[in-house]
Automatic annotation (TrEMBL):
Transmembrane segments: none
Protein name per its UniProtKB record: Bifunctional ligase/repressor BirA
UniProt cross-references to PANTHER family, sorted A to Z: BIOTIN PROTEIN LIGASE, BIOTIN--PROTEIN LIGASE
A molecular-function term among this protein's GO annotations: biotin--[biotin carboxyl-carrier protein] ligase activity
Pfam families linked: BPL_C, BPL_LplA_LipB, HTH_11
DNA-binding region: 23-42
SUPFAM superfamilies assigned to the protein according to its UniProt record, in alphabetical order: C-terminal domain of transcriptional repressors, Class II aaRS and biotin synthetases, Winged helix' DNA-binding domain
Binding site for biotin: Q118, R122, G123, R124, K189
Keywords of this entry: ATP-binding, Biotin, DNA-binding, Ligase, Nucleotide-binding, Repressor, Transcription, Transcription regulation
HAMAP family xref list: Bifunct_BirA (MF_00978)
Residue ranges of domain BPL/LPL catalytic in the record: 75-262
Length: 325
């Protein structure tokens, strides 16, 4: 976890991006001594930040480190709740596992866990999620909405819309959503979302949203069996991308949509989700654990359940399945 002083220091640079900040001014804003400011500036330097120091003017950050760090995500983060507490890890089994532990320890809503690498990344339906080092965004977000447990899948759909909007703005690509939570570009999967719950009988205590985005992988880095079905943003837009900037944008979009949802309910999200959905109006096969249903995807219900109409006109409600187009 970042120290409070370091957080305040980075917030001060965020709020005064274009200016030099003197040691005294920083000490006043942060509420510490000039020596403490100097010590923290030196620590930022050790962690790969480049700071320019100009006599009688002060300090300015001119370069941030190449790796994703909690500091880099915090610097310039425009959110009120999401990402205000950041746990950054180099290597973990799964960020979901850490998020569950932190949620049990009363971590505040909006706490995020980011890892550079996951050894046992979890996907939907007990699958593995390939999470190699330094190339992707492997992140879990803790939310604590006051909603009944059956409404939890709505959070998956909110997240999918947020990630699509962030990728669109960040890369100019046009991602689409395959129900419930796959984000595809040119028909290949670029993002997966895994929503897990902690709940009492009638109340959610926390929702852990896991977001996995393939950002900078090259084709040759993918295992053979994944090449035909998975891609990365870098492959699709042909350039290397700054992961920390994309994380910030995702947190910003997710917070906007989450607040909209808490205020106005699911309906506005449903409309947005349907506008990005690849399968609506198309014939699909939904493979559920009890069998396959073939038919036309009509849309989603208020609870985020997929409606599929088979050839006899019967409408099926699909809660969990793999979809084939
Ligand atoms: C899917 O099967 O499509 C969902 C994949 C979700 C992967 C993310 S990566 C961050 C978080 N930690 C995990 O172990 N899984 C999720």
């Amino acid at each position: 976890m970042q120290s409070e002083l370091r957080k305040k220091l980075l917030d001060a640079f965020t709020n005064n991006e274009a200016e030099y900040l003197s040691g005294q001014h920083l000490a006043d804003i942060i509420g510490c001594s000039r020596t403490a400011v100097w010590k923290h500036i030196e620590e930022l330097r050790k962690d790969g930040f480049e700071l320019e120091a100009v006599r009688r003017k002060g300090y300015k950050i001119i370069k941030i480190p190449e790796r994703v760090t909690a500091d880099e995500v915090r610097l310039g983060l425009p959110t009120k709740v999401l990402g205000r507490d950041i746990h950054y890890e180099e290597t973990v089994d799964s960020t979901q596992k850490i998020a569950h532990r932190l949620a049990n320890e009363d971590a505040p809503e909006g706490t995020i866990i980011i890892a550079e690498e996951q050894l046992l990344g979890r996907g939907r339906m007990d699958r593995r999620w390939h999470s190699p080092k330094y190339t992707g965004i492997w992140m879990s977000v803790i939310l604590r909405p006051n909603i009944p447990p059956p409404k939890a899948p709505q959070l998956t759909l909110i997240t999918a819309v947020a990630v699509v909007q962030a990728i669109e703005d960040f890369t100019g690509l046009s991602p689409q959503i395959k129900w419930p939570n796959d984000i595809l570009i040119n028909g290949k999967k670029v993002t997966g979302i895994l929503t897990e719950l902690q709940a009492d009988a009638d109340r959610i205590t926390s929702i852990i949203i896991g977001i996995g985005i393939n950002v900078n992988q090259k084709v040759e880095e993918y295992p053979e069996d994944l090449r035909a079905i998975a891609t990365s943003l870098s492959i699709e837009c042909d350039k290397k991308l700054q992961r920390a900037d994309l994380i910030k944008l995702i947190l910003q979009k997710l917070e906007q949509l989450y607040f909209l949802y808490l205020e106005k309910g699911f309906y506005p999200i449903k409309l947005l989700w349907e506008s990005y959905a690849i399968s609506i109006g198309k014939y699909i096969t939904a493979r559920t654990i009890t069998g396959s249903i073939h038919g036309k995807a009509l849309g989603i219900t208020e609870d985020g359940v997929l409606k599929v109409e088979d050839d006899s006109g019967k409408v099926h409600h699909i809660y969990s399945a793999d979809i084939e187009l």
